[in-house]
Amino acid sequence: MFLFTKRGLLLAGLLSLAVAGRAQSRKALDKIQTDILQDGLALYQMERASWVGTDLLMADKPDMSQLKGYVSYIMGDSVRCVFFRAGSSEQAPPLVQYSYTFPRNRVNAAAVRTTTTPRPVNAVEQRKWEQRLAVKDELATNQALGSPYRLPAKTALNIVLLDKSKTTYAYLLTGPQTSGLVPIGNDFLLTLDSKTNKVKLAERLHNSYLPLGADTIKHITSIAHTHLPAHPYITPSDICSTLLYHDQVPAQQHYVMGKGFISLLDMNQAEPRLIIFTKEAWDRMNSH
User: Fold this and answer.
1) Cβ-based neighbours of 183, under 8 Å, separated by 6 or more
2) Is 135 in contact with 145 (CB distance < 8 Å)?
3) Measured between alpha carbons, how far is 253 from 221 in angstroms, rounded to an integer?
4) Lowest model confidence (mean pLDDT) among 14-18, 81-85, 234-238
5) At what angle do helices 23-59 and 236-244 cross, to 10 degrees?
6) Whether this model's pTM surpasses 0.85
7) What is the rounded average pLDDT of the residues 164-192?
8) Helical segments of 19-105, H only
9) Per DSSP, what are the bridge partners of residue 211?
10) Separation between Cα atoms, residue 4 and residue 225, nearest integer Å
11) What are the residues whose beta carbons fall under 8 Å from the beta carbon of 193, sequence distance 6 or more?
12) Are 277 and 251 in contact (CB under 8 A)?
C-alpha cells in the first residue's frame, strides 16, 4: 500500500523527540540506519554510473553484437562502469571494451574518464563478470527463489552487485523501458557464495509493483509506503530508487511504515539523511 501527501514534517523537531527513547536502543538503530544509508548510496552510485555509462556508450554507436554485458563497481573514491566483449575463445575470459570512470560524488558525463581500447579484465572485473553470469542463471532457473521472478510488461531487471564485508549481494531493480514512469517495488535481494560466486539465497524485498507517472506526482512533497514484517526498515534499494528518480519526483521526505519501525529519508539537505524511529517513539511524537 502506498500513500502520498502534500504535507511534510520538520526533521529537526522529529530528531529532538526521537532522542527521548532509551539510549541503548537508539544506539542500535543509529548503527542500522548508518549501514542502510551507506548501502543505499553505494547502490545509487553504481546504478547511476550504469545509466550514464550506457548513455555515453550509445552515443558512440557501438557494434552491440560484440558486447556481452556490463557491471559497475566502486573502487575507492571512484565508481566504474565497464562493458565486456567476448575473449579470444570460448574458454578465454572476456575483455573490457568500454570503461567509464566517475567520482563517486559526481556521476555525470562532464566528470567521466573514458577508455575505449580493449584490455584484459582485472581481478575485480573477472569476479563481477562471474557473479553477473550466476545471477543471470538464477533468473533463468529460479532455483534460489523457488518461484519465477516477476517481470512486469515493458520492464527489465537491472543487476547491481554490492560487496559488503566478505559477502556479495545482488540487488535486482525493476527498470521501466517506457519514459516518464517511476518504478516502486518488485525488487529482489540475492546473496552470493563468497567461494563459488553462485547464488545461495534469494528473496523479494517488495511484493507489489507500482509504476507511477512522474507528471502526476511531481508536486508531492512527501511519500510513504508500507513494508511487511520481514523488512521492518527502509531498504537500500528504496534509497537507490529514490535518488535515481529524484529529478522526476522531487518529494523531500520519504517514509517507510513498518510494523515496529518508521524510516524517514530526508532530502532537504545537501546530503540525504536517514533516521529510523521505533513505533513507540513515532506514536509519542504524533501525540504531540
Assistant:
1) 155, 173, 174, 175, 176, 209, 210, 211, 212, 241, 245
2) no
3) 7
4) 14-18
5) 50
6) yes
7) 92
8) 23-59
9) 183
10) 8
11) 199, 200
12) no
More confident residue, 21 or 179: 179
Q: Give Rg (Cα) of the chain.
A: 20
- The grid coordinates of residue 236 equal 537500500
Q: What is the DSSP string of 114-165?
A: EE-S-EE--HHHHHHHHHHHHHHHHHHH-TTTSSPPP--TTEEEEEEEEEET
- Spatial separation of the C-alpha atoms in residues 113 and 90, rounded to whole Å: 30
How many angstroms separate the CA atoms of 64 and 149, rounded?
Answer: 26
Residues 6+ apart with CB under 8 A from 284: 17, 20
Enumerate the domain spans of the chain: 2-287
- Are 149 and 175 spatial neighbours (Cβ–Cβ below 8 Å)? no
Q: Comparing 17 with 84, which gets the higher pLDDT?
A: 84
Contacts of 155 (CB under 8 A, 6+ apart): 174, 175, 176, 177, 183, 186, 211
Instruction: Fill in the DSSP letter of residue 94.
Output: P
Spatial contact of 159 and 129, defined as CB atoms under 8 Å apart: no
Taking the C-alpha atoms of residue 271 and residue 269, their distance in angstroms, rounded to an integer, is 5
Q: Which amino acid makes up residue 194? A: S
